[in-house]
Automatic annotation (TrEMBL):
Signal peptide: none annotated. Belongs to the nesprin family. It is found in: Cytoplasm, Cytoskeleton; Cytoplasm, Myofibril, Sarcomere; Nucleus membrane. SMART domains: CH. GO terms for cellular component: cytoskeleton; meiotic nuclear membrane microtubule tethering complex; nuclear outer membrane; sarcomere. It holds the Pfam family Spectrin_SYNE1. This is Calponin-homology (CH) domain-containing protein. PANTHER family: CALPONIN-HOMOLOGY (CH) DOMAIN-CONTAINING PROTEIN (PTHR47535:SF9), MUSCLE-SPECIFIC PROTEIN 300 KDA, ISOFORM G (PTHR47535). GO terms for molecular function: actin filament binding. Keywords: Actin-binding, Coiled coil, Cytoplasm, Cytoskeleton, Membrane, Nucleus, Repeat, Transmembrane, Transmembrane helix.
Length: 753
């Protein structure tokens, strides 16, 4: 058998998760060490389950105080509440790049409370990305102004996809998310120093040379570059990590064996490399609008020159493109107004459409927002305005040419255009899943209504295509061939398009139910108020879950989605799409499994809180009344006190029950209610303590009387027994067999024998 070092994608993924767990744990501990008192994470997946250390980490990173449930009596519901607080806090923060709230993709409280590795690692990566990498790279004004409008948290956490090739050669070199910004920082500060090329955060770092180049850029005297190039990977990595830790104060988040692998984990390396930028930032903030910068450390002059030249070239390209578009528009307008036959007009249209398509990707890339707020520069806005106008004019001309065809081909052409628009229309994903589902549903009905005429139009077109004419009037061959291709596109994709829309509608319908359930759960596992408010929550739960049959509604939606997904995947035939659909279904199933357990447990929790309120209220009322009488009884006679406090054991039980219920409510209720409960218990327990010290001897009064009576009865019986025994043994007895036998029998009966 031939041995191979090939590893499956699953095995590589598992190895990367192990490295991430180790790296993220070290990163977290480096921050928790700053807390007073310090905390330590031993097992990342276990230690995040109760949310306590998660909130502590966010407090250290943000400098804000966050509410946290703690204590030995913590239940899962409190852990979920803690994690919910952390996630809500994160969602309230804004991305350094886009300025919009951070999105937590497929991360929920229940999965963290269950310690699901992929979800916990995803959350930690989001935190590292936002609080370290985004924050640090956004402070580089050159990269900040040239980063894309898309949030790096959204793009990297969910998936990382390379942008398609583009003709734009300038701004793209330093445009992108935090990952690209960090990579550019490395390339311009370290890579050029010793002539190495750092292409990524993976294999480029395996040899250890890249780490040494970063150290060399900071402290050249610490690195012997010639020696570095002649050593093994492991030796270089060990040396780099040691120097960084001992000489530069960079926490050792990685080990050589983490990096010296076929596919090093990018997230772990990014986390470590960002430490260098944190401790030794090279680029200074300058310029109020983030566009102009002249203040760059002298040690990196090439960086400043490159940035400024890129910006000048960008403006030049945009101005040149605007001139081209304006000339294109003038030529297009002239061609449209030229009198000619339909065939010549269509040939002219094709000429312009080819030019349009050649420039389209380049122009669309040029007008991508460069500012964090998503706004375009003045040059970009002017180019976009001209481009939109040209696009609209060209599309209108296409429709006009189709409509100019003799009937019924003109009508078919107009329908064909509408069908193409429908099939290419992109679904706008809104923040509210239900709104997305409703939008898709409306579009689906419109598209079904439009596409139901496909076969009829197709038959009519095929007859025209066969004869190449309409009622004897010739049709331009190129235009006819173009329509034939478009018909093929519509007829071959319409069925799959409708199936995909049905799947997407159900997908977002299911997601809306999940979000609704999570939202309701958060409103039910809060810190509670008085009994009346808890009763209202219970009524709300019963109305939402039981009266509305929420679980049944979810199950029906899920089963329909499952069937639709299977049909869609089968019809699509794409392996990648099948994997995406199955991943969504599996993740949704796991999420619902955990969420449904939490939701089902809410009723018993609310009922337990209400039960404790009832128990507390009843015991407080009865104990207060009894204490009033008991305190008065202290001045009465011993006999009266003894009689009154005869049932003291019962009140001891009542006192214990009151404290148990009160302490439960203190832990589960909000701060104001807890404060009132503590005050009331303090007063009642104080009165109880003073009284009990005076009367505790009466707690066993009934028992003492019973024992005394038992003692007296036993003494009486024993005395009678001994008297009778003495009498029997003192009486003279005539010796005979019968008499002795009778005596023995009598003694046995009396228990003397």
């Amino acid at each position: 058998m031939i041995k191979t070092n090939y590893k499956t994608p699953g095995a590589i993924k598992d190895e990367q998760e192990i490295v991430q767990k180790r790296t993220f744990t070290k990163w977290i501990n480096s921050h928790l060490a700053k807390r007073k008192p310090p905390m330590v994470v031993d097992d990342l997946f276990e230690d995040m389950k109760d949310g306590v250390k998660l909130l502590a980490l966010l407090e250290v990173l943000s400098g804000q105080k966050l509410p946290c449930e703690q204590g030995r009596r913590m239940k899962r519901i409190h852990a979920v509440a803690n994690i919910g607080t952390a996630l809500k806090f994160l969602e309230g923060r804004k991305s350094m790049y886009r300025g919009s709230p951070i999105k937590l993709v497929n991360i929920n409280s229940m999965d963290i409370a269950d310690g699901r590795p992929s979800i916990v690692l995803g959350l930690m990566w989001t935190i590292i990305l936002y609080f370290q990498i985004e924050e640090l790279t956004s402070n580089l004004p050159q990269l900040q102004s040239l980063s894309s409008s898309a949030s790096s948290v959204d793009s990297i956490v969910s998936s990382e996809t390379a942008s398609p090739p583009s003709k734009r050669k300038v701004a793209t070199k330093i445009q992108g998310n935090a990952k690209k910004a960090l990579l550019k920082w490395v390339q311009y500060t370290a890579g050029k120093q010793i002539g190495i090329e750092v292409k990524d955060f993976g294999r480029s770092w395996r040899s250890g040379v890249a780490f040494h180049s970063v150290i060399h850029a900071i402290r050249p005297e610490l690195v012997d570059l010639e020696k570095v190039k002649g050593r093994s990977n492991r030796e270089n990595l060990e040396d780099a990590f040691t120097i960084a830790e001992t000489q530069l104060g960079i926490p050792r988040l990685l080990d050589p064996e983490d990096v010296d692998v076929d596919k090093p984990d990018e997230k772990s390396i990014m986390t470590y490399v960002a430490q260098f930028l944190k401790h030794y930032p090279d680029v200074h903030n300058a310029g109020s609008d983030g566009l102009e910068t002249d203040e760059i450390l002298p040690v990196f002059p090439s960086f400043a020159i490159s940035i400024q030249s890129f910006k000048r070239e960008d403006r030049l390209i945009l101005k040149e493109m605007k001139v081209w578009i304006e000339q294109f528009e003038r030529d297009l307008t002239r061609a449209q107004m030229t009198e000619s036959n339909l065939q010549d007009k269509y040939q002219s249209f094709k000429h312009f459409r080819v030019q349009y398509e050649i420039k389209r990707k380049q122009i669309e890339h040029l007008i991508q927002p460069l500012h964090r707020d998503g706004k375009l520069s003045l040059d970009q806005a002017l180019v976009k305005q001209s481009w939109d106008r040209v696009s609209s004019r060209l599309f209108d001309w296409h429709i006009q040419l189709d409509k100019s065809l003799p009937a019924p081909l003109g009508t078919i052409g107009a329908w064909l255009y509408r069908a193409e628009v429908a099939l290419r229309e992109e679904i706008t994903i809104q923040q509210v899943h239900e709104e997305t589902a409703n939008t898709i549903q409306r579009k689906l009905e419109q598209h079904k209504d439009l596409l139901q005429n496909t076969d009829a139009h197709k038959r009519a077109f095929h007859e025209i295509y066969r004869t190449r004419s309409v009622n004897g009037i010739p049709v331009p061959p190129d235009q006819l061939e173009d329509m034939a291709e478009r018909f093929h596109f519509v007829s071959s994709t319409s069925e799959l398009h409708l199936m995909k829309m049905e799947f997407l509608e159900l997908k977002y319908r299911l997601l809306s139910l999940l979000v609704l359930a999570e939202s309701k759960l958060k409103s039910w596992i809060i810190k509670y108020g008085r009994r009346e408010s808890v009763e209202l929550l219970l009524q709300n739960y019963i109305s939402f879950i039981e009266n509305s049959k929420f679980f049944e509604q979810y199950e029906v939606t899920y089963q329909i989605l499952k069937q639709t997904a299977e049909m869609y995947v089968k019809a699509d035939g794409s392996v990648e799409e099948a994997e995406n659909v199955m991943k969504f279904m599996n993740e949704t199933t796991a999420q619902w499994r955990n969420l449904s357990v939490e939701v089902r447990s809410v009723r018993s929790m609310l009922e337990e809180v209400i039960s404790n309120w009832d128990r507390y209220g009843n015991t407080v009322a009865s104990l207060q009344a009894w204490l009033e009488d008991a305190e008065k009884m202290l001045s009465q006679s011993e006999t009266a006190k003894k009689d009154f406090f005869r049932n003291l054991p019962h009140w001891i039980q009542q006192h214990t029950a009151m404290n148990e219920a009160g302490n439960f409510l203190i832990e589960t209720c909000d701060e104001m209610v807890s404060r009132d409960l503590k005050q009331q218990l303090l007063l009642l327990n104080g009165r109880w303590r003073e009284l009990f010290m005076e009367v505790k001897q009466y707690a066993r009064a009934d028992e003492m009387d019973r024992m005394k009576k038992e003692y007296t009865d036993c003494v009486t019986i024993l005395s009678g027994f001994t008297t009778e025994a003495h009498r029997k043994f003192s009486e003279p007895l005539e010796v005979s067999f019968i008499n002795i036998k009778l005596l023995i029998q009598d003694l046995e009966v009396r228990g003397f024998w």
